[in-house]
Design a protein that fits this description.
There is one protein chain. The chain has one domain. The protein is elongated. It is α+β, with helices and mostly antiparallel strands and 212 residues long.
C-alpha cells in the first residue's frame, strides 16, 4: 500500500487578500455615500419671518401649502393673460385651493378672500387677503405678488420689495384685520405681519410622517 500525504493549501494569503478587497469595497462605498449626501441648509429667520413648519398649526399649514401652490399658478396666468391678475372669483371658479369653497376650506376656518391691485407702470402688484370667518382655527393670510414687465427684464424695486421673488406669503394671528395699506416688508412687519418661509426638505418629510 502506497501512502501519500497531501498538504492543505495555504489559505493565509488568500484570506488576507479577501480582507483587503472587502476593505476597499467598504471604503469606496463610504466615499460615494459621503459625496452624494446633501446637507439640507438651515433657514435663518429674521424677526419678521416664521417657519411654515414650526410656527403654524396643522390647518394653517394646509392653507399655506395650498396658497404657495396657487401663487405659482397665479403668477403664470398673469404672464399669459396680458398682465391681468386673476380675481378671487376667477380662482374660486377654477376650484383652486385655498380659495375654493371645498371641504378643506370649511375645516380651515372658511377664509374669506379679498383682493387689492396696485399696478404701477411696468411693476404689477396684487395682494389677496384671507380672513377666517371661524375664530380659534386659523389666523389671517396675505399673498403678495409682484411682477416686472420691463422690456429689458431688469428688476426695479416696487412697493412689494420682492427682489427676485415673484411672491411672498404673510401671516398674522388675528381674524379681524384690515387690508394693509402698504405692501412693503417694512410696512407689513410694523403692522405685525410675519413672512412665512416654506419648509426645508427635512421639515417636509417630518410633516408628512407626523414626526416631531
Amino acid at each position: 500500500m502506497h501512502t501519500q500525504v497531501v498538504k492543505s493549501a495555504d489559505t493565509g494569503r488568500e484570506g488576507l487578500y479577501f480582507v483587503l478587497a472587502m476593505a476597499v469595497v467598504i471604503a469606496v462605498a463610504a466615499l460615494c455615500i459621503m459625496h452624494r449626501t446633501r446637507t439640507e441648509p438651515q433657514k435663518v429667520l429674521f424677526d419678521y419671518q416664521i417657519s411654515g413648519y414650526k410656527d403654524l398649526n396643522n390647518l394653517e399649514q394646509g392653507t399655506f401649502v395650498a396658497l404657495y401652490t396657487a401663487a405659482m399658478e397665479i403668477d403664470a396666468c398673469h404672464d399669459n393673460n396680458e398682465g391681468e391678475w386673476l380675481s378671487v372669483k376667477d380662482l374660486q371658479e377654477r376650484f383652486m385651493p385655498p380659495f375654493a369653497h371645498d371641504r378643506a376650506w370649511g375645516k380651515s376656518g372658511m377664509l374669506i378672500w379679498t383682493q387689492k391691485i396696485l399696478n404701477k407702470d411696468i411693476i404689477h402688484i396684487t395682494a389677496y387677503l384671507g380672513k377666517p370667518s371661524i375664530s380659534d382655527i386659523s389666523g389671517s393670510f396675505l399673498l403678495v405678488l409682484s411682477h416686472n414687465h420691463s422690456a429689458e427684464g431688469d428688476y426695479q424695486m416696487g412697493e412689494a420689495e420682492h427682489e427676485d421673488e415673484p411672491f411672498k406669503i404673510w401671516y398674522i394671528g388675528k381674524t379681524d384685520v384690515d387690508f394693509p395699506e402698504g405692501l412693503s416688508i417694512r410696512s407689513l412687519a410694523v403692522k405685525g405681519w410675519k413672512e412665512v418661509l416654506p419648509y426645508t426638505g427635512e421639515e417636509e418629510m417630518k410633516r408628512i410622517k407626523g414626526d416631531d
